[in-house]
Amino acid sequence: KYPNANFLVTGSLGPGGNAHGPDEKLHIPATKAVTTCLAAAIASLNA
Question: What are the DSSP E strand ranges found in 1-47?
Answer without folding.
Answer: none
